[in-house]
Inverse folding.
């Protein structure tokens, strides 16, 4: 019939939140895939939502923090298993400025939150392939945050 269906990736966001001590806010995954491993806050964008709106919403859901500014950093393609299905995603990484970290709380699909110095981040501690690659990129660009 001449119709071509393009199986494009889903949009997902990742928030990199830093503090004045040179630390990054890191989450521990409460659910599969990669339950128990480290992660960065973020998740899938909803329909009719911009990536910036998506990363703000996900960060607030997972950490209780209100994002007041976002700056796009880079993207990494990924495969993510959800409900037994392998989904192709395009993970969009943003540096996020938050209003204050006094409201910090682990929620949604996050078991705990912790601050880790950028220099001490180890990609092998992170469970998702794109986040591992993102941690390596973050260490390369840390002086631009």
């Amino acid at each position: 019939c001449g119709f071509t269906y393009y199986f494009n990736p889903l949009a997902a966001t990742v928030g990199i939140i830093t503090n004045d001590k040179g630390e990054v806010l890191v989450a521990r995954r409460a659910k599969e895939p990669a339950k128990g491993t480290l992660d960065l806050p973020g998740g899938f964008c909803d329909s009719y939502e911009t990536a910036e709106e998506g990363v703000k919403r996900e960060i607030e859901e997972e950490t209780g923090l209100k994002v007041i500014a976002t700056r796009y950093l880079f993207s990494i393609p990924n495969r993510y298993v959800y409900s037994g299905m392998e989904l192709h995603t395009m993970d969009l990484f943003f540096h996020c400025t938050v209003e204050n970290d006094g409201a910090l709380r682990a929620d949604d699909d996050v078991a705990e939150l912790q601050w880790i110095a950028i220099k001490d981040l180890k990609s092998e501690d992170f469970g998702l392939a794109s986040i591992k690659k993102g941690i390596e990129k973050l260490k390369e660009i840390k002086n631009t945050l």
Observations:
- The longest helix spans residues 51-63.
- The chain is about 20% helix and 40% strand.
- The chain has a mean pLDDT of 95.
